[in-house]
Sequence to fold (314 residues):
Amino acid sequence: MKYTDIYLPEEQQLLSSCTLCPRECGVDRFEAGAGYCGADAGLNIASICIHRGEEPPISGVNGICNIFFAGCNMRCLYCQNYEISRHECASMCPEMEFETCIDIIEQIMSKGIRAVGFVSPSHVVPQVKAIIRGLNSRGLKPITVYNTNSYDKVDTIRSLNELIDVYLPDYKYVTPEIAYKYSDAYNYPEIALKALREMYFQKGSVLRIGDDGIAESGILIRHLLLPGHTAESIKLLRSIANELSPGVSISLMSQYQPTPEVKNHQVIGRNLSRKEYQEVVAQMEKLDFRNGWLQEMESNTNYLPDFSRGHPFE
Fold:
């Protein structure tokens, strides 16, 4: 394997017996990507592109330079990025040289892009840190966005304290049985809440936005509503209000679209209804959430990537 020279000694040690995420597979990722995520010690990058489909303060007018990693430490049945997130996808991803990666990001940033987003990074945090160091070594200081499923260990989030400007975490479930059924992660609610608390501890509730409308520091929690699970979404919002603060920024997403893998599922094989979304929005207002973003019901057709193309969202 290559890449040993881009990691600090403690990162090499971690990748040699990987306990980076809550799965704690213990595999040597310099030998192969045999762990739960399927990723090795390479960069495991599926796409680097300008993305304009994020929340307004994340992408702004010009967009964000998003780095989409292959593989994942969860197995959500309905994942919209299933083309790159499955276990086998990481090994199928073309190998990218480190300097090539930095070159691409630098080129994108030269177009007026201020932020770099790391999408699905929980299983590749050493790679994230190496990329940030690589950019800094060229004098580039982008706003860094950690776009995570929140299945992260607290120690991992703590290690990012001086490196990540904006946390963009999902908060998917608060019920272990539902987390297991849809994402093979029974302990997700406990793990995610601990990770969110650490992010909140680092950043507080205020999402600090610059004069150009771009978020420069803070946390913005995303929640994707699943059809047939309004009660779970309402419980989750109560969890945020009680465990963190109703002042934290929320992105309540209606964009759920059944992928081919779940189109025949008896519960989540359909789109979210307007009534379901409005019910959760009403509860969000009742809980006194003051900062955040809602989506139009038609948004479910706007966020369907095709990673076989050079730009998956165009």
Notes: Strands lie at 45-51, 64-69, 115-119, 143-148, 166-169, 208-209, 215-224, 249-253, 292-294. The longest strand covers residues 215-224. The chain has a mean pLDDT of 94. Residues 65 and 295 are 22 Å apart (CA to CA).
